[in-house]
Protein backbone atom coordinates (compact mmCIF):
# COMPACT_ATOMS: atom_id res chain seq x y z
CA UNK A 1 0.00 0.00 0.00
CA UNK A 2 1.21 3.46 -0.86
CA UNK A 3 1.94 5.87 1.96
CA UNK A 4 -0.33 8.88 2.43
CA UNK A 5 0.70 12.50 1.95
CA UNK A 6 -1.54 15.31 3.20
CA UNK A 7 -1.15 18.50 1.13
CA UNK A 8 -2.76 21.48 2.82
CA UNK A 9 -3.24 23.71 -0.26
CA UNK A 10 -3.39 23.27 -4.00
CA UNK A 11 0.14 22.90 -5.36
CA UNK A 12 1.49 23.14 -8.92
CA UNK A 13 1.00 20.02 -11.08
CA UNK A 14 4.75 19.42 -11.42
CA UNK A 15 5.01 18.79 -7.67
CA UNK A 16 1.69 17.02 -7.39
CA UNK A 17 2.61 14.51 -10.11
CA UNK A 18 5.92 13.70 -8.43
CA UNK A 19 4.09 12.82 -5.23
CA UNK A 20 1.25 10.97 -6.96
CA UNK A 21 3.69 8.51 -8.51
CA UNK A 22 4.98 7.41 -5.13
CA UNK A 23 2.16 8.04 -2.70
CA UNK A 24 -1.54 8.44 -2.11
CA UNK A 25 -2.23 12.11 -1.83
CA UNK A 26 -4.94 13.99 -0.02
CA UNK A 27 -4.84 17.56 -1.32
CA UNK A 28 -7.06 20.27 0.08
CA UNK A 29 -8.37 21.81 -3.11
CA UNK A 30 -10.52 24.73 -2.31
CA UNK A 31 -8.38 27.30 -4.13
CA UNK A 32 -6.24 29.10 -1.60
CA UNK A 33 -8.67 28.56 1.24
CA UNK A 34 -6.88 27.10 4.25
CA UNK A 35 -7.52 23.49 5.08
CA UNK A 36 -9.87 23.54 8.08
CA UNK A 37 -8.15 22.53 11.28
CA UNK A 38 -10.51 19.63 12.06
CA UNK A 39 -9.96 18.15 8.61
CA UNK A 40 -6.21 18.54 8.97
CA UNK A 41 -6.27 16.73 12.33
CA UNK A 42 -8.46 13.99 10.89
CA UNK A 43 -6.46 13.49 7.68
CA UNK A 44 -3.04 13.34 9.32
CA UNK A 45 -4.10 10.36 11.47
CA UNK A 46 -2.92 7.84 8.86
CA UNK A 47 -0.51 10.11 6.98
CA UNK A 48 3.21 9.52 6.54
CA UNK A 49 3.87 13.04 5.32
CA UNK A 50 2.51 16.60 5.53
CA UNK A 51 3.13 19.11 2.75
CA UNK A 52 2.53 22.48 4.37
CA UNK A 53 3.15 26.22 3.99
CA UNK A 54 3.58 29.36 6.12
CA UNK A 55 -0.12 29.59 6.94
CA UNK A 56 -0.66 26.23 8.70
CA UNK A 57 0.19 25.72 12.33
CA UNK A 58 1.96 22.37 12.67
CA UNK A 59 2.06 22.13 16.45
CA UNK A 60 1.99 19.48 19.17
CA UNK A 61 -1.69 18.79 18.53
CA UNK A 62 -1.00 17.96 14.88
CA UNK A 63 1.98 15.76 15.78
CA UNK A 64 -0.13 14.01 18.45
CA UNK A 65 -2.76 13.19 15.84
CA UNK A 66 -0.20 11.86 13.35
CA UNK A 67 1.28 8.68 14.80
CA UNK A 68 2.50 7.42 11.41
CA UNK A 69 4.22 10.63 10.44
CA UNK A 70 7.70 10.35 8.87
CA UNK A 71 8.27 13.79 7.40
CA UNK A 72 6.93 17.37 7.35
CA UNK A 73 7.82 19.57 4.41
CA UNK A 74 7.05 23.28 4.13
CA UNK A 75 7.03 25.22 0.90
CA UNK A 76 8.89 28.13 2.50
CA UNK A 77 12.26 29.04 3.90
CA UNK A 78 10.77 30.18 7.24
CA UNK A 79 9.48 27.45 9.56
CA UNK A 80 8.25 29.40 12.59
CA UNK A 81 4.81 27.84 12.06
CA UNK A 82 6.19 24.38 12.84
CA UNK A 83 7.00 23.17 16.35
CA UNK A 84 10.53 21.85 15.77
CA UNK A 85 10.90 20.68 19.37
CA UNK A 86 7.91 18.38 18.93
CA UNK A 87 9.28 17.16 15.60
CA UNK A 88 12.64 16.41 17.22
CA UNK A 89 11.04 14.47 20.07
CA UNK A 90 9.57 12.17 17.45
CA UNK A 91 12.67 12.17 15.22
CA UNK A 92 10.65 13.61 12.37
CA UNK A 93 12.71 15.56 9.83
CA UNK A 94 11.24 18.89 8.72
CA UNK A 95 12.10 20.08 5.21
CA UNK A 96 12.11 23.65 3.87
CA UNK A 97 13.13 25.45 0.68
CA UNK A 98 16.14 27.71 1.28
CA UNK A 99 18.23 29.33 -1.43
CA UNK A 100 15.79 28.96 -4.27
CA UNK A 101 13.63 31.94 -3.27
CA UNK A 102 16.46 34.31 -2.34
CA UNK A 103 16.60 36.44 -5.49
CA UNK A 104 12.83 36.51 -5.97
CA UNK A 105 12.27 37.66 -2.39
CA UNK A 106 15.02 40.28 -2.72
CA UNK A 107 13.32 41.56 -5.88
CA UNK A 108 10.02 41.93 -4.03
CA UNK A 109 11.74 43.58 -1.08
CA UNK A 110 13.31 46.13 -3.38
CA UNK A 111 10.05 46.63 -5.31
CA UNK A 112 8.27 47.35 -2.04
CA UNK A 113 11.04 49.71 -0.97
CA UNK A 114 10.78 51.65 -4.22
CA UNK A 115 6.97 51.63 -4.28
CA UNK A 116 6.88 52.99 -0.74
CA UNK A 117 9.60 55.62 -1.24
CA UNK A 118 8.11 56.92 -4.48
CA UNK A 119 4.43 56.55 -3.51
CA UNK A 120 3.61 54.32 -6.47
CA UNK A 121 0.36 52.87 -5.12
CA UNK A 122 -0.86 56.21 -3.80
CA UNK A 123 -0.15 57.75 -7.23
CA UNK A 124 -2.24 55.19 -9.02
CA UNK A 125 -5.11 55.60 -6.54
CA UNK A 126 -4.89 59.35 -7.08
CA UNK A 127 -5.55 58.95 -10.79
CA UNK A 128 -8.22 56.28 -10.30
CA UNK A 129 -10.08 58.56 -7.93
CA UNK A 130 -10.11 61.34 -10.55
CA UNK A 131 -8.02 63.69 -8.44
CA UNK A 132 -5.29 64.42 -11.01
CA UNK A 133 -6.18 67.92 -12.24
CA UNK A 134 -2.75 69.26 -13.23
CA UNK A 135 0.98 68.83 -12.85
CA UNK A 136 1.91 69.69 -9.26
CA UNK A 137 5.19 71.14 -8.04
CA UNK A 138 5.41 68.76 -5.12
CA UNK A 139 2.74 66.31 -6.22
CA UNK A 140 3.39 62.79 -4.86
CA UNK A 141 6.95 63.73 -4.06
CA UNK A 142 8.75 61.03 -2.15
CA UNK A 143 12.19 59.97 -0.97
CA UNK A 144 15.31 59.41 -3.04
CA UNK A 145 16.60 55.89 -3.23
CA UNK A 146 19.86 56.46 -5.12
CA UNK A 147 22.61 57.51 -2.80
CA UNK A 148 20.53 56.98 0.35
CA UNK A 149 21.58 54.82 3.30
CA UNK A 150 19.96 51.41 3.64
CA UNK A 151 20.14 49.46 6.90
CA UNK A 152 19.58 45.73 6.55
CA UNK A 153 18.61 43.88 9.71
CA UNK A 154 19.33 40.17 9.16
CA UNK A 155 22.19 39.61 6.72
CA UNK A 156 21.30 36.12 5.51
CA UNK A 157 20.99 35.07 1.90
CA UNK A 158 18.10 37.45 1.22
CA UNK A 159 19.84 40.30 3.04
CA UNK A 160 22.89 39.85 0.82
CA UNK A 161 20.74 39.83 -2.30
CA UNK A 162 19.05 43.06 -1.17
CA UNK A 163 22.46 44.62 -0.44
CA UNK A 164 23.58 43.72 -3.96
CA UNK A 165 20.59 45.54 -5.42
CA UNK A 166 21.20 48.51 -3.12
CA UNK A 167 24.80 48.77 -4.34
CA UNK A 168 23.45 49.02 -7.87
CA UNK A 169 21.57 52.11 -6.71
CA UNK A 170 24.74 53.59 -5.18
CA UNK A 171 23.28 53.20 -1.73
CA UNK A 172 25.37 53.21 1.38
CA UNK A 173 24.81 49.78 3.00
CA UNK A 174 24.71 49.22 6.76
CA UNK A 175 23.75 45.93 8.32
CA UNK A 176 23.09 44.31 11.64
CA UNK A 177 23.22 40.57 12.14
CA UNK A 178 23.79 38.03 14.90
CA UNK A 179 27.20 37.28 13.39
CA UNK A 180 29.42 39.65 11.49
CA UNK A 181 29.89 38.70 7.85
CA UNK A 182 33.39 39.93 6.90
CA UNK A 183 33.21 38.41 3.44
CA UNK A 184 29.93 40.22 2.72
CA UNK A 185 31.37 43.44 4.13
CA UNK A 186 34.18 43.22 1.62
CA UNK A 187 32.25 42.04 -1.38
CA UNK A 188 29.25 44.35 -1.00
CA UNK A 189 30.93 47.24 0.83
CA UNK A 190 28.46 46.76 3.67
CA UNK A 191 29.25 48.24 7.08
CA UNK A 192 28.37 46.28 10.22
CA UNK A 193 26.86 48.30 13.04
CA UNK A 194 24.78 47.97 16.19
CA UNK A 195 21.02 47.91 15.78
CA UNK A 196 20.83 51.31 17.47
CA UNK A 197 23.32 52.89 15.09
CA UNK A 198 21.62 51.31 12.08
CA UNK A 199 18.24 52.70 13.12
CA UNK A 200 19.69 56.18 13.71
CA UNK A 201 21.55 56.41 10.43
CA UNK A 202 19.41 54.64 7.84
CA UNK A 203 17.01 56.27 5.41
CA UNK A 204 15.64 52.80 4.65
CA UNK A 205 15.38 50.16 7.35
CA UNK A 206 14.82 46.70 5.89
CA UNK A 207 13.88 43.86 8.23
CA UNK A 208 14.82 40.36 7.09
CA UNK A 209 15.36 38.46 10.34
CA UNK A 210 13.74 35.06 10.81
CA UNK A 211 11.02 34.75 13.42
CA UNK A 212 12.45 33.37 16.67
CA UNK A 213 11.78 34.07 20.36
CA UNK A 214 14.71 36.54 20.23
CA UNK A 215 13.31 38.51 17.30
CA UNK A 216 9.74 38.71 18.61
CA UNK A 217 8.70 42.40 18.33
CA UNK A 218 12.34 43.41 17.96
CA UNK A 219 11.10 46.57 16.26
CA UNK A 220 8.93 48.40 18.77
CA UNK A 221 8.39 51.90 20.09
CA UNK A 222 11.97 52.33 21.29
CA UNK A 223 13.45 51.25 17.95
CA UNK A 224 10.99 53.34 15.92
CA UNK A 225 11.87 56.38 18.04
CA UNK A 226 15.49 56.02 16.96
CA UNK A 227 14.65 56.18 13.25
CA UNK A 228 14.88 59.35 11.17
CA UNK A 229 11.70 61.31 10.35
CA UNK A 230 12.32 60.52 6.67
CA UNK A 231 12.85 56.80 7.35
CA UNK A 232 11.08 54.19 5.26
CA UNK A 233 10.59 50.88 7.04
CA UNK A 234 10.29 47.69 5.02
CA UNK A 235 9.35 44.28 6.41
CA UNK A 236 9.42 41.18 4.23
CA UNK A 237 10.38 38.77 7.03
CA UNK A 238 7.68 37.97 9.60
CA UNK A 239 5.03 40.18 11.14
CA UNK A 240 5.81 38.89 14.62
CA UNK A 241 9.18 40.68 14.43
CA UNK A 242 7.37 44.03 14.73
CA UNK A 243 5.11 45.64 17.33
CA UNK A 244 2.33 46.62 14.90
CA UNK A 245 0.63 48.96 17.35
CA UNK A 246 3.86 50.90 17.84
CA UNK A 247 4.45 50.95 14.08
CA UNK A 248 0.96 52.34 13.53
CA UNK A 249 1.62 55.12 16.06
CA UNK A 250 4.98 56.00 14.51
CA UNK A 251 3.44 56.22 11.03
CA UNK A 252 0.30 58.08 12.12
CA UNK A 253 2.26 60.67 14.10
CA UNK A 254 4.84 61.19 11.36
CA UNK A 255 7.66 59.91 13.54
CA UNK A 256 8.79 57.88 10.54
CA UNK A 257 7.88 58.63 6.95
CA UNK A 258 6.39 55.43 5.54
CA UNK A 259 6.31 51.65 5.69
CA UNK A 260 6.10 48.84 3.15
CA UNK A 261 4.88 45.56 4.62
CA UNK A 262 4.53 42.12 3.09
CA UNK A 263 3.92 40.36 6.41
CA UNK A 264 1.74 40.86 9.49
CA UNK A 265 1.40 39.54 12.98
CA UNK A 266 -1.89 37.83 12.12
CA UNK A 267 -2.37 36.91 8.48
CA UNK A 268 -4.47 37.51 6.53
CA UNK A 269 -5.23 41.07 7.69
CA UNK A 270 -8.71 42.39 6.96
CA UNK A 271 -9.47 45.57 4.98
CA UNK A 272 -10.30 47.39 8.22
CA UNK A 273 -6.85 46.83 9.74
CA UNK A 274 -5.69 50.16 11.30
CA UNK A 275 -2.54 50.25 9.14
CA UNK A 276 -4.74 50.46 6.04
CA UNK A 277 -6.22 53.76 7.19
CA UNK A 278 -2.82 55.39 6.66
CA UNK A 279 -1.69 56.96 3.37
CA UNK A 280 1.96 56.25 4.03
CA UNK A 281 1.71 52.46 4.10
CA UNK A 282 2.03 49.99 1.24
CA UNK A 283 0.86 46.48 2.06
CA UNK A 284 1.10 43.19 0.22
CA UNK A 285 -0.39 39.75 0.97
CA UNK A 286 2.82 37.87 1.90
CA UNK A 287 4.09 37.41 -1.66
CA UNK A 288 7.86 37.76 -1.21
CA UNK A 289 8.71 34.56 -3.06
CA UNK A 290 5.72 34.67 -5.41
CA UNK A 291 7.09 34.53 -8.93
CA UNK A 292 5.58 31.76 -11.04
CA UNK A 293 8.97 30.10 -11.56
CA UNK A 294 10.08 30.32 -7.94
CA UNK A 295 6.83 29.15 -6.39
CA UNK A 296 6.83 26.20 -8.79
CA UNK A 297 10.43 25.34 -7.91
CA UNK A 298 9.65 25.67 -4.20
CA UNK A 299 6.78 23.19 -4.57
CA UNK A 300 9.03 20.73 -6.40
CA UNK A 301 11.74 21.12 -3.77
CA UNK A 302 9.18 20.55 -1.00
CA UNK A 303 7.97 17.44 -2.86
CA UNK A 304 11.56 16.16 -3.11
CA UNK A 305 11.89 16.58 0.66
CA UNK A 306 8.70 14.55 1.12
CA UNK A 307 9.86 11.75 -1.18
CA UNK A 308 13.18 11.55 0.66
CA UNK A 309 11.38 11.38 4.00
CA UNK A 310 8.97 8.69 2.83
CA UNK A 311 11.79 6.45 1.66
CA UNK A 312 13.91 7.04 4.76
CA UNK A 313 16.59 9.01 2.92
CA UNK A 314 18.03 12.21 4.38
CA UNK A 315 16.18 15.32 3.22
CA UNK A 316 18.15 17.64 0.94
CA UNK A 317 17.12 20.54 3.14
CA UNK A 318 16.19 19.63 6.69
CA UNK A 319 15.83 22.39 9.27
CA UNK A 320 16.49 19.87 12.06
CA UNK A 321 19.32 17.60 10.84
CA UNK A 322 19.84 16.67 14.50
CA UNK A 323 17.13 14.01 14.02
CA UNK A 324 19.72 12.08 12.01
CA UNK A 325 22.19 12.10 14.87
CA UNK A 326 22.06 8.48 16.04
CA UNK A 327 23.95 9.27 19.25
CA UNK A 328 21.23 11.58 20.35
CA UNK A 329 18.78 10.16 22.88
C1 LIG B 1 7.89 32.82 3.16
O1 LIG B 1 7.57 33.69 3.94
C2 LIG B 1 8.93 31.89 3.41
O2 LIG B 1 9.35 31.74 4.58
O3 LIG B 1 9.34 31.22 2.46
C1 LIG C 1 16.89 33.05 3.65
O1 LIG C 1 17.05 32.41 2.62
C2 LIG C 1 17.90 33.84 4.35
O2 LIG C 1 18.80 33.23 4.91
O3 LIG C 1 17.82 35.08 4.35
Key descriptive features of the protein:
Rossmann fold; 15% strand; 329 residues; 7-stranded parallel β-sheet; alpha/beta; 5-stranded parallel β-sheet; binds glyoxylic acid; single chain; 35% helix
In a few lines, what is going on in this structure?
By secondary structure, this protein is an alpha/beta fold. Helices cover 35% and strands 15% of the residues.
Structure description:
Strands 8-7-6-9-10-11-12 form a 7-stranded parallel β-sheet, sandwiched between helices. It has a 5-stranded parallel β-sheet with strand order 2-1-3-4-5. Helix 7 (157-168) links the parallel strand 6 and strand 7 (172-176). The chain folds into 2 domains: 3-100 and 292-323, 3-Layer(aba) Sandwich (Rossmann fold), CATH 3.40.50.720; 102-283, Rossmann fold (3-Layer(aba) Sandwich), CATH 3.40.50. The chain is 35% helix and 15% strand. The chain is built from 12 helices and 12 strands. It has helices spanning 13-22, 37-43, 60-65, 84-89, 102-117, 120-128, 157-168, 182-188, 195-201, 221-226, 244-252, 292-310, and strands at 3-7, 23-27, 49-52, 71-74, 94-95, 149-153, 172-176, 190-192, 204-207, 232-235, 258-261, 281-283. The mean pLDDT is 97. The chain is an alpha/beta fold. One glyoxylic acid (GLV) binds at residues 54, 76-78, 101, 288-289.
